[in-house]
């Protein structure tokens, strides 16, 4: 188990595996997202209360779910990076932050565009919206720290610490709608028991959810490869790849 | 202890301390993080006349009376207690009888709530109109669940 | 495409605005790492 783990964590092995898997992630993401978006926009019936405005859900919920999942992934990488000082974990940590930030921003913007016509306001300071905004600031903090500190290893350590401290915000975002009164609705899909959604509406949503995870996988592999190339500059495997133009 | 074990201990301590601080903070500030009060809270006498606050609940069926211009009166309920609300202004598209709403305003001396802003709070259920008609979606315990009493006033008897 | 579909029961600005911003986010996630890769390769090939 440990030898397998160490081999996977070795930069040349990971780089090669990423090259092999990334295209499949890309294909899966394209297929699932195309199916989900077309189904959501064209085939899903309109909602009994929100009519066509509810179609924002096919972007909003996957983006929001991803914003939390990427944070957990980033924090796991941070744990490994801070304790075991594994280079690959450092690369994953700093690569996950911009992806997470972009999807957190997408969740916030689509939420605002949904809130205005349905609630009557773009923004309110309820527990869900406020904690999701803090999530964006945490991502921004990790990105900023990484850019501000010259030495990549020291930067990764600082980013890792911030990412670990911020982990406390993740359950708050998720459970905010249960713990406190909020304007935001409770969970439709990501909850215990039956989803509170008609099957014809839910099916494209599941496709979009799965699709964004594959998309995240694709982008994360490519970004992690970039970080590995930079940190491993001058090593034999990078030189070899540069010479054969196989990068 | 090796250096690695020391780092593990430090991170574990950090996370435990953080969770503890968060848990303490939430118990202390639970009320402040509540976005609105319920009619039960207001009737339990926890608010002063004229103080700005938010009130959330369900618009009681058959209670909406439109007056001159944009003025509207309705009863807001949380399945236990209810309060009359007066509002003048534009209502959100989702405002209707049986709908959850959050109103910002203040209690008046006459026991009614005067709202300056009304926002709609929809629930987590999504379905096509035909299904909704067949189900005849009713107010009930389920519809009241999102409206939690801030001061833990005794709910349904 | 029917104008009914584009109109989204009057919520066109909000629905299409959301999908439009989503397109921007997806495109940025695809393009940014690719540009960065090009940058890194240029940097590595000149210094080594």
UniProtKB/TrEMBL annotation, chain A:
It is a multi-pass membrane protein. The gene is ccmC. One of its GO terms (biological process) is cytochrome complex assembly. GO terms for cellular component: plasma membrane. The keyword Chaperone does not apply. One of its GO terms (molecular function) is heme transmembrane transporter activity. Residues 27-184 form the Cytochrome c assembly protein domain. Belongs to the CcmC/CycZ/HelC family. InterPro entries: Cyt_c_assembly, Cyt_c_biogenesis_CcmC, Cyt_c_biogenesis_CcsA/CcmC. Keywords: Cell inner membrane, Cell membrane, Cytochrome c-type biogenesis, Membrane, Transmembrane, Transmembrane helix, Transport. Its main location: membrane. It is found in: Cell inner membrane; Membrane. This is Heme exporter protein C.
UniProtKB/TrEMBL annotation, chain B:
Its main location: membrane. Heme binds at residues 122, 126. GO terms for molecular function: heme binding; metal ion binding. InterPro entries: CcmE, CcmE-like_sf, NA-bd_OB-fold. It is found in: Cell inner membrane; Cell membrane. GO terms for cellular component: plasma membrane. The keyword Transferase does not apply. It is a single-pass type II membrane protein. Keywords: Cell inner membrane, Cell membrane, Cytochrome c-type biogenesis, Heme, Iron, Membrane, Metal-binding, Signal-anchor, Transmembrane, Transmembrane helix. The keyword Membrane applies. One of its GO terms (biological process) is cytochrome complex assembly. It comes from the Bacteria. Residues 1-7 are cytoplasmic. Residues 29-157 are extracellular. Heme chaperone required for the biogenesis of c-type cytochromes. Transiently binds heme delivered by CcmC and transfers the heme to apo-cytochromes in a process facilitated by CcmF and CcmH. Belongs to the CcmE/CycJ family. NCBIfam families: PRK13254.1-1 (NF009727), PRK13254.1-3 (NF009729), PRK13254.1-5 (NF009731). This is Cytochrome c-type biogenesis protein CcmE. It comes from Stenotrophobium rhamnosiphilum.
